[in-house]
Amino acid sequence: MSELLQVKRLNLELVCGKRYIHREITHTSVNRPGLALCGHLDNFRANSVQVFGRGEHAYCLRENKTKLRNNITKMLSEGNVPCVIMAADLDPLPAVKKACLSADVPLLKTTMDSSAFMSEFSLFLDEKLSPVTHIHGVLVGVSGIGVLIRGGAGIGKSECALELIKRGHILVADDVVEVQARWGRFLVGSCPAMLKHYMEVRGLGIIDVELLFGVGSTLDEMNIELEVVLTPPQKNGLDRLGVEQNTTTILGVDVPSMTLPVTPGRNLAVLIEVAALNQRLKSQGIFSAKEFSQKILDRMKKTAQEHDK
Q: Least buried of 23, 139, 191, 269, by fewest C-beta within 10 Å?
């Protein structure tokens, strides 16, 4: 938790409890303990960072000092509170300081208003504590859509990504994609620090994409909205209409997925461009394959009715 003091955007400083600054933050939720200050601990988020805003501070000023200290001590002893933070540059009352020290909980303060601080702090905690996994593949930004290209070794993932970069699209990560589930709802892909801007292309070796194509050809991170799996030609064929909507699950989040067979003469970069644009239409409720299929069914039904007459 000591690294919080180094995060400039949070404007935090330590008030007291330096010996306890090693306590770990394990939950992304942030809590304002209004009812807990009154002694009501039902559903109290005991493992969350506790933020005192102007409302909590005003209550503390009116409450009996002994009762206030007892309530805060009981609140901080309920679970494993990582720390208490005073927002809006408020000076904590002696009763608050004593309660924090008796419970071995560090007390910090920030100049930011409580609502702005909680928004920024929640975002920071989500970035640090959300689950992370590493996936073998290439992540490219195609027309604003994060496309994760996967497939077996030597199938042509990097070559396909290189062609997309030449066509004006953006590289995020090659070979290893670091994926994080943010807010439990969407996936953010990035590149490990050592591999940023670099690609391995068979026959060429390691190349620096940023130096070759310019700073606009790379991006630090991007939401993953589509998975494209490159495969050898399949004897049993694929869904040629594209009516089926397949998904893959990464860190508990479902991502639309499609399979592209790699055969001589196919321009995979163009196909992935079209797939990304088509996925954008699907996200807007326009599913071309289903609309086409429905038109055929309606036509067949109409023809059958005409024959019955």
A: 23
Over residues 300-307, mean pLDDT: 74
Contact 89, 62 (CB under 8 A): no
Model's pTM, two decimal places? 0.77
Query: Active site includes 19?
Result: no
Closest CA to 195 of 124, 276, 150, 136: 136
Total residues belonging to the chain: 309
Q: How far is CA 122 from the centre of its chain?
A: 12
Q: How far is CA 17 from the centre of its chain?
A: 32
Does residue 126 have an active-site annotation?
no
C-alpha span between 245 and 241 (Å, rounded): 11
Among the listed residues 54, 67, 136, 202, the single catalytic one is 136
Exactly one of 157, 169, 174, 197 is catalytic; name it.
Answer: 157
Residue 197 falls in the annotated catalytic set: no
What single DSSP character describes residue 218? B
pLDDT at 178: 96
Q: How confident is the model at residue 241 (pLDDT cuts 50, 70, 90)?
A: low
Q: Among 240, 307, 308, 309, which one carries the catalytic annotation?
A: 240
Summarised one tens digit per residue, pLDDT across range 269-290 is: 999 999 998 888 888 887 776 7
CA distance 200 to 204: 8
Q: How much is the pLDDT for 294?
A: 75
Nearest alpha carbon to residue 181 among 173, 190, 172: 190
